[in-house]
Amino acid sequence: MYRHEDGVAESRIGELMDRLHALCDHLPGAVALRRAVDDLQGPLRVAVVGRFGTGRDTVARALRQSYDVSPIGPGDDADDADAWLHVLSGWPRPDDVAAIADLDPRRSLVVLGKADSLGSWPAARDRAAQCTASLGRAVVPVMPLLAVPDLRMDDIDFMAAMAAAGEQVPPMQAEFLDAGGPHQRLQRLSLLRRLDAYGIASALALLRGGPLTAEELAARLHQRSGLDALADPLTEFASLAEQRRVGRVVDELEIIAAQGILRDEIEHILSGSMLSGALT
Question: Which are the contacts of 227, defined by CB distance < 8 A and separation ≥ 6?
């Protein structure tokens, strides 16, 4: 989890990890220590929570593809999570309010997960601001479907033809599905499942500006997803998680040293030149 760009710092981290792993090799029975050491450089574990139907799975998938994190989705064990993302869909309900109140605000974030269903970013931001006022804590609007479109070139060609024909995405899904006749229905249904109406409209608008590859269109859609707004909070969560993980290593080392086992080696690791020096 260490995020140092400086070469000297990276070298110091590498030295520290080598010493810690070597120490664990000399202490095969120190299971808790090895677990804590292995955890030091693991990804941030983010539990994605919220009511059923709020798009939690899509948010988790978008996080996994956009950041160096390990999302914990619905149904998985979130006991060892480093941070929590509570996903709203529309107004906070009483069970949302109760669940959010139980989350540590220093290690959690509330997101409006189906912001695209509101039809525009201004509407999404306005709804998020209203939710913020209601909950008394920040709510970040995101459109996770735009971050994980999973588009192929045949999808691009199909939508490029729609864009060239000047087709607009109607508010009713049935109208969109029927617009191309029976032979296009399955392909249009597939696009709706992956992008929804707002995502398709966004893709058409981008394609009207000129040809794009699947990768280029996916990148442009990702820019419109709002996922970039999660970067700073996730960085803060990672910093706090790093401190807690280092603290667990220190605790385990001090327990072993108190038993008189490899005391000199452990004291050197715990000195400022080793463990403390690895932190910034």
Answer: 62, 63, 66, 142, 144, 147
Strand order from edge to edge, sheet including 69-72: 69-72, 44-50, 83-88, 108-112, 139-141
- 7, pLDDT greater than 70: no
CA of 250: how far to CAs of 26, 147, 178, 256, in Å?
A: 17, 39, 63, 10
Give the pLDDT of residue 276. 60
Rounded average pLDDT over 184-205:
95
Distance of alpha carbon 197 from alpha carbon 140, whole angstroms: 21
Give pLDDT tens digits for 123-148.
Answer: 999 999 999 999 999 999 999 999 99
Record the pTM: 0.87
* Locus of tokens 């966004």: 202
The Cα 8–Cα 13 span in angstroms is: 9
3-state SS, one letter per residue, for 247-259: HHHHHHHHHHHHC
Distances (CA, A) of 77 to 41, 49, 71, 102, 209: 20, 11, 11, 17, 45
User: Quick one: residue 272, left, alpha or beta (phi over 0 = left, psi -120 to 50 = alpha)?
Assistant: alpha
- Tell me the C-alpha distance between 113 and 49, whole Å: 11
Query: What's the pLDDT score for residue 11?
Result: 67
